[in-house]
């Protein structure tokens, strides 16, 4: 079938008449319904490789949170052990550290196997070093490595000298590795980044329910953030390693009273009568110190001199770094350093917290400017491109925060002075680029319309040039509307005719869009409107449409389609912008008592939706005899003297309450079809309508009203027929049509179909006494008068609709 086009006079005509066979559904079955090539291929769900599943699991929020908690423990666990727990609990802490080491090692191994770019990357070495830095926290592994061995034999001087050397080595090695373990902070930073991304996505979803799924982070943003993190980590680690080199304690050792006192005792080793006095003073001086002496021994085999002293604190109960061995040639003193180690552990906790803050803030604020000025705007533009590629129609309706708005919002947090936003906006080229993308997306949506969404999406997601493919079979309510006397109006309005048409289009498109329809064609004086159903609402079987009983849209969309046309008729006769043309001098000279009038036709059926054209120009439209049928009804409104006609097929899908607003005015056959079609109208009288205040509803307000209406209808809190009952405009237009009028016309219509034309004549004439200008009554009286009110012999209750 060929879609209708517009002639020079502005009314829809058919490029090719509809022949009888093409209108027969049985003959169309082969073309449209039994063609295997038209069937959609089965949907195959791709299997996700095990490697991808493992990566998804490792990158999941649960695993990131779990590994982050382990990383936090490994940062502070050993210091908490040293500052708050005795040596007897070391085995428990070593077991926990061993478990963490095993988990981190397993994760490291899995990443090496599953992530292609991970081996020998920056994060590979970072994770390797941070994992190995856990070894000093595991005494079972670390003590043998550094040669530390706790021995209960406190009677051997050589043991203490060796232990003192081992303790010094262990302390130095541990001090270095404490710095290395701060690399584990990178896990905390990764956790923060993923949590921030999740929060931003949640806020975005709450702002716009229709937001589509997009990549979490752009490649540019990911690369730039990784580089920033690497640089900050390297700088901080370099500072941590280099700054201790400038400390005097790194190069010199201060003599303490512990070692100086032993040197004085050694001077009296040959004077037994004085050595005990010196030892007593040495012990008493250090006994009540914060670092008390807990053990002392002096042995001089030559003089057979032996002295031993100890406290209740066992030397073996202290960790190797919690005791200090002061040694001389013949004497050894052991001091309790738990005060120092506890204080040092607490300082290490504070240092770690400070470095955490510095590292996190450094990564955040070093990348903040680039993130705000470049990355966020780019990601916003990527979102728009994805939105246009996935659903250009919806993308055109969305409101987005622009890149410039984001930049100014961030700047206002740090600037205490006001800036000229209009001047600043011109400085941000990226804002100009973003605005251009938005405009292109909106123009695509406006240019292609509802039917062009799949065309745009399919071609934008391909690398090839424009590809014209077969169409999709859909079910929809099709509506045509036409501006009356358009040729005369164009000749008088000249250049202003564009404003004239657009002012009418504003009302038509706004009403149709608000009530779940979409504009498809705007050609001169005519508009094609569509209320499209999805496959779950309607199906096509043997050329006939069948609604899904469980579909709510199949029940209320037909009501909304008729309601929107009635609202357009009311607005055309109320809107002050349209009413001003009644006073237009040139229009009234050519057409006295000029009023803007329109004709409307509605029909429901199937159609082929797709692209029509070539590589040079395409249009998105619908091809179907049902589309042509709606055009025929619109053209027939002139014959019946009513502004609106629709088919009996659509009438059958209206809710019972809405059907009471409709009037059956004829049953006919159209050219190319032998099947009778009932014709209905919904009566309108505009005499009692008063001009409105002219408040123009914005596109955002219309979309908001549409969403609210959809939620109410889908949720069952509102029925579609309530729109008719609550509309003051529709009630005003229906008021002149009384029960007496409808009773007379209904009786006349029944007599007309049954072939009792004399009775029908009386009833229709009775209707004209009530409504003298009732178009359907005049038309049917004219049809019967052509046969002198004698019923034809072949009368079957319908006639052939002739074109006049």
What characteristics describe this protein?
804 residues, alpha+beta, Alpha-Beta Plaits, nine-stranded mixed β-sheet, four-stranded antiparallel β-sheet, rod-shaped, disordered N terminus
Would you write up a description of this structure?
There is one protein chain. With 804 residues, the chain is an alpha+beta fold. The protein has 4 domains: 50-250, no CATH class; 368-460, no CATH class; 472-736, Alpha-Beta Plaits (2-Layer Sandwich); 738-804, no CATH class. Strands 7, 8, 9, 12, 13, 14, 15, 16 and 17 form a 9-stranded mixed β-sheet that branches. Strands 4-3-6-5 form a 4-stranded antiparallel β-sheet, sandwiched between helices. Helix 14 packs parallel to helix 18 (429-448). The radius of gyration is 44 Å and the shape is rod-shaped.
In short:
This protein has 804 residues and is α+β, with helices and mostly antiparallel strands. It folds into 4 domains: 201 residues, no CATH class; 93 residues, no CATH class; 265 residues, Alpha-Beta Plaits; 67 residues, no CATH class. The chain is built from 33 helices and 17 strands.
């Amino acid at each position: 079938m060929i879609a209708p086009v517009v002639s020079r006079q502005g009314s829809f005509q058919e490029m090719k008449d509809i022949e009888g066979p093409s209108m027969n559904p049985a003959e169309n079955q082969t073309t449209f319904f039994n063609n295997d090539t038209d069937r959609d291929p089965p949907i195959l769900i791709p299997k996700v490789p095990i490697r991808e599943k493992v990566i998804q699991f490792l990158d999941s929020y649960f695993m990131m949170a779990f590994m982050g908690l382990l990383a936090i423990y490994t940062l502070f666990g050993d210091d908490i052990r040293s500052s708050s727990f005795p040596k007897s609990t070391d085995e428990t802490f070593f077991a926990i550290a061993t478990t963490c080491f095993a988990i981190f090692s397993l994760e490291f191994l899995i990443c090496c196997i599953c992530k292609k770019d991970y081996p020998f990357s920056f994060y590979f070495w970072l994770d390797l070093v941070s994992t190995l830095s856990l070894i000093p926290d595991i005494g079972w592994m670390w003590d043998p490595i550094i040669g530390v061995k706790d021995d209960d034999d406190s009677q051997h001087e050589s043991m203490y000298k060796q232990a003192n050397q081992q303790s010094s080595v262990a302390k130095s090695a541990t001090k270095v590795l404490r710095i290395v373990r701060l690399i584990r902070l990178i896990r905390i930073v990764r956790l923060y980044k993923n949590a921030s991304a999740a929060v931003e996505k949640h806020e975005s979803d709450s702002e716009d329910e229709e937001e589509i799924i997009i990549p979490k982070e752009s490649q540019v943003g990911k690369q730039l953030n990784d580089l920033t993190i690497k640089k900050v980590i390297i700088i901080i680690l370099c500072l941590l390693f280099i700054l201790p080199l400038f400390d005097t304690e790194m190069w010199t050792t201060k003599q303490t009273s512990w070692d100086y006192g032993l040197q004085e005792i050694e001077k009296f080793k040959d004077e037994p009568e004085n050595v005990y006095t010196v030892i007593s003073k040495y012990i008493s001086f250090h006994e009540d110190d914060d670092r008390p002496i807990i053990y002392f021994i002096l042995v001089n085999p030559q003089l057979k001199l032996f002295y031993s002293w100890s406290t209740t604190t066992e030397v073996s109960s202290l960790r190797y770094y919690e005791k200090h061995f002061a040694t001389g040639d013949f004497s050894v003193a052991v001091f309790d350093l738990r005060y120092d180690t506890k204080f040092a552990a607490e300082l290490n906790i504070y240092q770690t917290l400070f470095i955490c803050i510095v590292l996190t803030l450094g990564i955040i604020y070093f990348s903040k400017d680039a993130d705000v000025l470049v990355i966020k705007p780019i990601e916003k533009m990527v979102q728009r491109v994805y939105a246009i590629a996935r659903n250009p129609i919806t993308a055109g309706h969305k409101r987005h925060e622009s890149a410039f708005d984001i930049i100014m919002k961030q700047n206002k947090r740090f600037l205490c002075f006001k800036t000229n936003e209009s001047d600043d906006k011109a400085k941000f080229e990226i804002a100009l680029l973003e605005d251009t993308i938005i405009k292109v997306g909106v123009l695509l949506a406006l240019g292609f319309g509802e039917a062009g969404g799949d065309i745009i999406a399919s071609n934008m997601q391909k690398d090839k040039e424009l590809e014209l493919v077969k169409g999709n079979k859909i079910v929809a309510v099709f509506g045509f509307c036409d501006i009356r006397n358009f040729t005369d109006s164009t000749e008088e309005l000249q250049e202003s005719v564009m404003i004239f048409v657009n002012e009418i289009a504003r009302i038509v498109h706004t009403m149709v869009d608000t009530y779940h329809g979409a504009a498809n064609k705007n050609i001169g004086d005519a508009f094609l409107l569509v209320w499209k159903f999805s496959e779950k609402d309607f199906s096509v079987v043997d050329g006939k449409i069948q609604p899904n009983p469980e579909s709510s849209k199949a029940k209320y969309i037909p009501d909304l389609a008729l309601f929107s046309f009635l609202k357009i008729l009311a607005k055309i006769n109320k809107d002050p912008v349209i009413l001003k043309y009644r006073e237009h001098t040139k229009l009234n000279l050519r057409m006295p008592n000029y009023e803007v009038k329109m004709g409307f036709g509605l029909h429901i059926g199937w159609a082929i939706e797709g692209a029509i054209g070539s590589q040079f120009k395409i249009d998105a439209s619908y091809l179907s005899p049902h589309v042509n049928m709606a055009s025929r009804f619109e053209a027939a409104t002139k014959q019946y003297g009513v502004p609106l006609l629709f088919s009996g097929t659509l009438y059958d899908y209206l809710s019972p309450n809405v059907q009471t607003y409709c009037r059956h005015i004829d049953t006919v056959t159209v050219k190319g079809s032998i099947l009778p079609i009932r014709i209905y109208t919904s009566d309108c009288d505009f005499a009692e309508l008063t001009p409105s205040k002219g408040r123009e509803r914005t596109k955002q307000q219309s979309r908001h009203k549409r969403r609210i209406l959809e939620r109410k209808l889908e949720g069952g809190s509102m029925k579609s027929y309530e729109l008719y009952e609550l509309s003051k405009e529709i009630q005003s237009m229906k008021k002149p049509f009384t029960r007496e009028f409808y009773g007379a016309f209904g009786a006349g219509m029944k007599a007309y179909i049954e072939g009792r034309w004399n009775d029908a004549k009386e009833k229709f004439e009775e209707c004209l006494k009530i409504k003298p200008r009732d178009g359907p009554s005049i038309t049917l009286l004219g049809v019967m008068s052509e046969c002198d009110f004698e019923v034809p012999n072949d009368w079957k209750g319908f006639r052939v609709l002739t074109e006049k």
